[in-house]
């Protein structure tokens, strides 16, 4: 049985001792993923000269799903291989924006999904974090799935 943990080069370094992705047999577990970039800035987050923040759930959701796609590609998977997703929102007021972006990536045959509200995430700029499970299809590579 394959058992592989990986911190993906070129992605934001995890803020703890854990991998971006762990493969066990045909199952692929993606750690909670945010919109954080490798330089520790955040997609969908900024502040003006006075320190007033501008947080965009749609930009953050898009960045999270793109980050998950990159992590999956590192183990020869794509978003099409996802079977289950858990999303953590700081505010259910962002549910509509999150859903609009979700619909850009998936249809009703996509992965099962649970969305919960949480008190906070590891940085005050974060509105969303997503954890995911995928299944590897033996004999196929990411290039064949594209």
From TrEMBL:
Molecular-function annotations in GO: 2-aminomuconate deaminase activity
Protein name per UniProt: 2-aminomuconate deaminase
Any single GO CC term annotated in Swiss-Prot or TrEMBL for this entry: cytosol
Enzyme class: hydrolase
Source organism of the structure: Amycolatopsis camponoti
CDD domains: YjgF_YER057c_UK114_family
Pfam families in the record: Ribonuc_L-PSP (PF01042)
Keywords for the protein's UniProt record, in alphabetical order: Hydrolase
Database matches in InterPro entries: RutC-like_sf, YjgF/YER057c/UK114
């Amino acid at each position: 049985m394959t058992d592989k943990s990986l911190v993906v080069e070129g992605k934001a370094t995890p803020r703890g001792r854990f991998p971006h992705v762990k493969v066990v047999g045909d199952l692929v577990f993606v750690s909670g993923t945010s919109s954080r970039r490798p330089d520790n800035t955040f997609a969908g987050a900024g502040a003006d000269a006075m320190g007033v923040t501008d947080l965009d759930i749609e930009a953050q959701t898009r960045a999270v799903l793109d980050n998950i796609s990159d992590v999956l590609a590192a183990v020869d998977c794509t978003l099409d291989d996802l079977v289950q997703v858990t999303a953590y929102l700081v505010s259910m007021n962002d549910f509509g924006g999150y859903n609009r972006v979700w619909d850009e990536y998936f249809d009703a045959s996509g992965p099962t999904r649970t969305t919960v509200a949480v008190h906070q995430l590891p940085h005050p700029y974060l509105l969303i974090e997503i954890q995911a499970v995928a299944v590897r299809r033996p004999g196929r590579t990411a290039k064949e799935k594209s």
